[in-house]
Amino acid sequence: MNAYDTAGDARHGPQPAPAPRVGVAALSLRYQIAAALALAVVAVAVCVHMGMVFLHVAPSNTVSKRQGSAIDDWIYPEFEQNWKLFAPNPLQQNIAVQVRAEIREPDGGMRTTGWYDLSAQDGRDIDGNLLPSHTQQNELRRAWDFLVATHDNDNRPVGLRGDLAESYLRRIVVLRLDREDAAGPGGVVERVQLRSQTTNVRPPEWSDEQVPDKPVYRELPWWEVPEDEAEGDLA
Questions:
Q1: pLDDT category, 15, cuts 50, 70, 90?
Q2: Which residues have C-beta within 8 Å of that of residue 216, sequence separation ≥ 6?
Q3: Does the N-terminal peptide bond of residue 77 adopt cis geometry, omega within 30 degrees of 0?
Q4: Dihedral angle, C-alpha 39, 45, 48, 50, nearest 10 °
């Protein structure tokens, strides 16, 4: 380094350090590639899901007719859409889903629990909750709607979707019963039975409409609970 260079460095002072890299740019090349691939996979999954939901709720068209089975397999039961809120004649009934169970005691005896009002439990969890979860608001209600739509008036499943609806709802209520410790110490849930309690919404005070106030029940047959589900293996 000559005298001129030394003088120049003295005039300009030390050079500032380069700004540190942040975010994805701070990762090594290998991890940047992995992050890009993960982002691409998520983007594709979101696009596929949005496309399936659109085809499910859209009017019948060539694609939905040809790929109807694949669309139903993707949508049901977790992502089913329901637009009754916007129907010309909205629902005017409250439907509560209730369950009871047959428990095998440690000594081999059997007992039947009382009815657990699962809808009322969800209502209590939602009441006063500024951010209720999707599960609290919709899981049980949509599972019941799915079952009703896939069963005849004698509560018999119609096709494979009916069997799927039973399995899905049974798993939900077994989890709820386990949460309530319905079986007790050492007990095992052998069978469950569900029913719905339908009550008409009272008309406003200014209306002359008269509706029955007596609840109507729809009682399903007893369902056997598989041993793995009864022991808590619901994977």
A1: low
A2: 197, 198, 199
A3: yes
A4: -90
CA–CA gap between residue 175 and residue 169 (Å, rounded): 10
- Do residues 136 and 172 touch, judged by C-beta distance below 8 A? no
For residue 223, count other CB atoms closer than 10 A to its CB.
Answer: 17
Q: Give the mean model confidence (pLDDT) for residues 125-137.
A: 87
Stretch 153-180: mean pLDDT: 93
Buried b (16+ CB within 10 A) or exposed e, 38-77: eeeeeeeeeeeeeebbebbeeeeeeebeeeeeebeebbbb
Residues 6 or more apart whose Cβ sits within 8 Å of residue 199: 93, 94, 96, 213, 215, 216
Q: Per-residue pLDDT for 85 more than 60?
A: no
Q: How far apart are CA 112 and CA 153, in angstroms?
A: 26
17/78: higher pLDDT: 78
Tokens 């859209």 correspond to 58
The set of long-range contacts for 109-116, using a CB threshold of 8 Å and a minimum separation of 24, is 110/190, 113/177, 113/182, 115/195, 116/176, 116/177, 116/180, 116/182
